[in-house]
Amino acid sequence: MKGSKIHKWQEKRLLGKIQNGDEESFGKIYDWYVNRIFKYVSLKIGSIEKAEEIVQDVFLKFWRFARDKENKVKNISAFLYKIAKSMVADHYRTTAGEGKIISLEETIIVEDETIGEEELADNIDLNLDIEKIKMALEKLPRSYQDVIIMKFMEELTNKEIAEILEKEEGHIRVLAHRALKQLRSLLKSND
């Protein structure tokens, strides 16, 4: 399943198996989404340890909810992001955002540990640019941060983002446009 989007029919089949207690199906969903949810949470939280804890809780809540035959999950991605967004908000309410600031490179989980020197140099240059973007992102309102992370880093569609944020799809387009405009402005002022 990695490398492309999960199909709705696959989600439906896996969810049906989870309702019957199939842990292997849950594992497939976990494997598919864990890096995405971790990246989102860690960019919002700033602490790897806390992000890992929140991600575990996100999937635990998903497991409990999805196993209940009375509950219906229509879109796994949107549902997981909603849980994560809610838990990030809870984190900020309870801790006022304390924690060490992490670099974006710490949030990237490298699947292939065999990176050559040339690739490493390219990654360092990319990470420097990403660090500038991350610093500018932190200055944006949370709604803009969410849209930029989901749309451009997680490559979610406007429709998926609208479902996660519980807004109209047209509103997401406007939000994305305004967020990018403000991000560009911040990046220009930092240069």
Report on this model:
This is RNA polymerase, sigma-24 subunit, ECF subfamily. Pfam families: Sigma70_r2, Sigma70_r4_2. GO terms for molecular function: DNA binding; sigma factor activity. Keywords: DNA-binding, Sigma factor, Transcription, Transcription regulation. This protein is mostly helical and 191 residues long. The protein folds into 2 domains: 109 residues, Rna Polymerase Sigma Factor, Chain: A (Orthogonal Bundle); 80 residues, Arc Repressor Mutant, subunit A. It is built from 9 helices and no strands. About 16% of the residues have low confidence.
The value of Rg in angstroms is 18 Å
Order of secondary-structure elements: HHHHHHHHH
Reported for the largest beta sheet, the result is: none
Enumerate how many helices there are, as a single number. 9
Domain RNA polymerase sigma factor 70 region 4 type: 131-183
Protein name: RNA polymerase, sigma-24 subunit, ECF subfamily
GO molecular function, one term: sigma factor activity
Organism: Candidatus Kuenenbacteria bacterium GW2011_GWA2_42_15
